[in-house]
Design brief:
- It contains seven helices and six strands.
- With 255 residues, it is of the alpha+beta class.
- It has two domains: 97 residues, no CATH class; 145 residues, no CATH class.
- Strands 1, 2, 3, 4, 5 and 6 form a six-stranded mixed beta sheet that branches.
- Strand 3 and strand 4 form a beta hairpin.
- Helix 1 packs across helix 4, helix 2 packs across helix 3 and helix 2 packs antiparallel against helix 4.
- The longest helix has 24 residues.
- It is globular, with a radius of gyration of 22 Å.
């Protein structure tokens, strides 16, 4: 799960731009210093690319201010705004891969398949759309109400993956950050590389629809005498690590 060895991203399936932006800003010490030579060159390159695509139709000074402030909507038509945002997103993606690939705290899962936990909300989400092909008079419940009750305003969905030693781990995906028309259901069919951050642990049983909304009400089990003497509490090896995914896509050896 370390550095991705000499690989190139050739297809983006999922990219959480908000998380990537936060990460890059943190890597830059809390803000992007536009006085630095490399950042000036980066901004100049972005603006040149946008201006070329728009055939000189941009006010570069105004666009520079918009790019720095993060406001791209004022004074430009929809196609121009989309063009500018696309260029900035591509730069963000390149920067994220550059920083993350050197960061041991960003975990990389190369060339992996994921799958939905059995009887989980993720599995229901993946297959709920197929219920729409069933005539309403053959279903004794309102599917819209059922989906709202189960899915609600849920933002993240969990999938399972196995590491090189066969140990299961949990990857969480922001449902709103899939790219190029892909959905949660597409993930299990694709051989992908994932970049993520370890955010905690859970039991595999916790991922089932039945258990996901249960909360522990009793007190925690007291530590054993051995744990008290050693000053540590034993780690449950059955717990699965959870990773929030920032980037997923197809990576290949550069030609």
């Amino acid at each position: 799960m370390g550095k991705v060895p000499n690989k190139k991203m050739i297809k983006v399936v999922y990219f959480d731009e908000g998380s990537a932006t936060d990460y890059i800003v943190i890597q830059n010490g809390g803000q992007i210093d536009w006085s630095k030579k490399e950042n000036k060159e980066k901004l100049a390159k972005m603006l040149t690319e946008i201006d070329v695509q728009a055939k000189g139709g941009f006010n570069l000074l105004a666009l520079a201010k918009a790019a720095i402030s993060g406001s791209m909507q004022v004074g430009y038509d929809a196609s121009s705004t989309k063009m500018a945002e696309s260029t900035i997103t591509n730069t963000l993606l390149t920067d994220y891969i550059k920083f993350a690939n050197e960061d041991k705290h960003i975990y990389k899962f190369y060339n992996k398949y994921v799958y939905a936990p059995e009887n989980s909300v993720s599995m229901y989400k993946m297959y709920s759309s197929y219920l729409n092909i069933v005539p309403k008079d053959q279903i004794p419940i309102d599917l819209g109400e059922l989906n709202n009750a189960i899915l609600g305003e849920r933002g993240y969905y969990q999938m399972l993956i196995s590491d090189d030693n066969g140990r299961k781990q949990v990857l969480r995906f922001n449902i709103n950050t899939f790219k190029n028309g892909y959905t949660l259901a597409d993930l299990s069919k694709m051989n992908l590389t994932f970049f993520g951050v370890n955010v905690g642990t859970c039991m595999e049983a916790d991922l089932s629809m039945e258990n996901e909304f249960k909360f522990e009400t009793g007190s925690k089990k007291p530590p054993s005498a051995q744990e008290v003497v050693k000053g540590v509490q034993a780690v449950d090896e059955n717990r699965l690590e959870i990773f929030d995914i920032v980037l997923a896509g197809v990576m290949r050896d550069p030609s």
